[in-house]
Recover the amino acids of this structure.
């Protein structure tokens, strides 16, 4: 193996990891923020708002993420809107995942006990205050495990941003493997790379949040 | 004579083909304590739920404190109440539920200050003082920082009573508030209600299976059967010498069960 190629490949691979981490973090923030927002609109009492949320979910969940990225990157410029690859990567991946996120937010909100809504009505809470102070804090607990799944999916999905010119972990591994001929090594690195990122970042974050939001639900988590 | 505190005027409630309440007429005077008894499915809990606006009515009007709750006046005609109107009139009513429905993510104290702060606009300090006083009153002054999961059923129900009172309602509704409790915890909750009745100007309407308590505490008892009031009157009369056969059958069945 050529030492130059190896050194070059390792440097590129390191950069790929950083890119994947950055895009995953950015897209996750977009996905969570939009997922929460659209999920809440999805359970609105105003039907037209609900329809908008349904349309959003159907579009982003029902069409291909790669094709969505192509639209952001190659089709929007036709209409005069040119976005940088990074913007498309973070917003495009984030919005795609937010479609799934909105549905799990809705499910979690609707699974909060009926009695909580009734007590809130009896105490005369306006609906938005009830959602913010009573329902959502309880729903968050139920939505954390599925959000964990979704963000791990998102992490792995970021490999698609190769198609909009960004060299991330998978691409860097492929290039390194091609350059050095060592497919076993570099695809092993890619394989475990995603696992390590998910296991070291996403899982602990979700676990920590689960403990935090379990106050009052599990005896041990009270204090 | 002043308006009754609560008036049900020809109120009908049905779910599809099933009529739960059929043209109910019922007046409850200021500070009156009324118990509602009757077999399962007789519509008694629905009466409270309609008054709390948890159920929409199909026909008739409910009045609270001299103004319509379910309807409002628009240019001289009565129209269905808007959410805003509902919120204004509903503020006069508080409710305690069979299954407590405390907010599990909040301590006892937080449960009692959340609505006074975010609905009534009290300052945090004011709300905390009010909540602390009420929790003391229900005998839970030392449990302020406890979460519902750390409390017994009886304690939870007493917090729920304090939480409802913190909104200073004029009418309190109690929906089978001891039915989910272990027998030895029933007394502590009933004592709180007894004390409330004695010390506060409150109109109280309760659905109960505690016949002894209903007899001792109520000014009037209503026996519901098949979506109607089959019989009503002072507890002595209704429990000891009922006029209606249904009442007699119900009471003997309940008393037999112990």
């Amino acid at each position: 193996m050529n030492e130059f190629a190896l050194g070059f490949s390792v440097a590129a691979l390191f950069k790929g990891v950083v890119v994947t981490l950055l895009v995953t973090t950015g897209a996750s923030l977009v996905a969570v923020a939009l997922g929460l927002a659209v999920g809440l609109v999805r359970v609105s009492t105003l039907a037209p708002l609900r329809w908008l949320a349904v349309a959003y979910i159907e579009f982003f969940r029902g069409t291909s993420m790669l094709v969505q990225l192509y639209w952001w990157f190659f089709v929007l410029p036709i209409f005069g809107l040119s976005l940088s690859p990074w913007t498309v990567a973070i917003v495009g991946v984030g919005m795609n995942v937010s479609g799934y996120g909105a549905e799990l937010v809705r499910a979690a909100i609707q699974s909060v006990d009926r009695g909580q809504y009734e007590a809130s009505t009896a105490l005369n809470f306006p609906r938005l205050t009830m959602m913010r102070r009573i329902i959502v804090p309880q729903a968050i607990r139920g939505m954390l495990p599925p959000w964990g799944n979704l963000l791990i999916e998102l992490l792995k999905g970021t490999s698609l941003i190769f198609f909009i010119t960004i060299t991330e972990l998978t691409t860097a591994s492929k290039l390194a493997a091609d350059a050095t001929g060592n497919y076993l090594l570099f695809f092993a690195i890619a394989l475990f790379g995603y696992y390590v990122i998910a296991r070291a970042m996403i899982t602990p974050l979700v676990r920590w949040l689960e403990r935090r939001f379990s106050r009052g639900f599990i005896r041990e988590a009270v204090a | 004579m002043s308006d009754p505190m609560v008036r049900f005027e020809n109120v009908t409630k049905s779910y599809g083909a099933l009529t739960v309440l059929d043209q109910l007429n019922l007046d409850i005077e200021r500070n009156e304590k009324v118990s509602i008894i009757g077999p399962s499915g007789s519509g008694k809990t629905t009466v409270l739920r309609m008054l709390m606006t948890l159920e929409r009515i199909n026909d008739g009007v409910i009045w609270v404190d001299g103004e319509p709750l379910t309807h409002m006046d628009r240019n001289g005609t009565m129209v269905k109440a808007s959410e805003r109107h509902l919120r204004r009139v509903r503020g006069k009513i508080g409710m305690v539920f069979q299954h407590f429905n405390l907010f599990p993510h909040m301590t006892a104290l937080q449960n009692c200050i959340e609505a006074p702060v975010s609905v009534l606009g009290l300052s945090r300090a004011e709300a905390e003082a009010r909540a602390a006083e009420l929790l003391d009153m229900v005998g839970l002054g030392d449990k302020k920082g406890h979460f519902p999961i750390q409390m017994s059923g009886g304690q939870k129900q007493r917090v729920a009573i304090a939480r409802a009172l913190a909104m200073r309602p004029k009418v309190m509704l109690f929906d089978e508030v001891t039915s989910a409790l272990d027998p030895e915890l029933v007394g502590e909750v009933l004592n709180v209600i007894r004390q409330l009745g004695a010390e506060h100007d409150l109109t109280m309407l309760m659905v109960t299976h505690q016949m002894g308590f209903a007899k001792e505490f109520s000014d009037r008892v209503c026996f519901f059967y098949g979506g109607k009031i089959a019989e009503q009157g002072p507890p002595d009369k209704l429990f000891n010498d009922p006029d209606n056969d249904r009442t007699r059958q119900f009471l003997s069945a309940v008393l037999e069960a112990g």
